[in-house]
């Protein structure tokens, strides 16, 4: 999901025409929501980022497949030896966005914490059975 609109800056510089939310931070103390928006020349550049992420996820899956097997061929052992799970998990795609993200701050209109607390109790084993206080 993203927004499409050609935007130029105050000085006429091209900001982008494909804009996606990269990060959202809720600050309940100040009742503000900080949104960081990445700008791209067009959708194809975001698609390139997604393709790099998908390729890296495939490498992680391959690493886990190979490391879980005892009957590796010589070629597979060499392939596994050339992989580093730590490096694969630390992968960040080369940004294809134009310039820095734009930060937008909005007031919080609804409190989403209740549903987040509910999900923590269900989806995170550490909080399973926790009660609302």
Percent of residues in helices comes to: 25-40%
Rg to the nearest angstrom?
A: 21 Å
- Our count of domains comes out at 2
Q: Summarize the helix and strand pattern as letters.
A: EEEHHHEH
Give the biggest beta sheet. 4 strands, antiparallel
Number of helices: 4
Strand percentage: 25-35%
Count the E strands. 4
Low-confidence spans: none
In spatial order, strands of the major sheet run 1-2-3-4
Molecular structure report:
The protein is α+β, with helices and mostly antiparallel strands and 133 residues long. The protein has two domains: 1-41 and 98-133, no CATH class; 44-96, no CATH class. The protein has four helices and four strands.
Structure, briefly:
With 133 residues, the protein is of the alpha+beta class. The protein folds into 2 domains: 1-41 and 98-133, no CATH class; 44-96, no CATH class.
Tag the structure with descriptive keywords.
133 residues; alpha+beta; 4 helices; 37% helix; flat
Write the layout of secondary structure elements.
Elements: E1 3-8, E2 14-27, E3 32-40, H1 43-67, H2 74-81, H3 85-89, E4 102-107, H4 113-123
Antiparallel strand pairs: 1-2, 2-3, 3-4
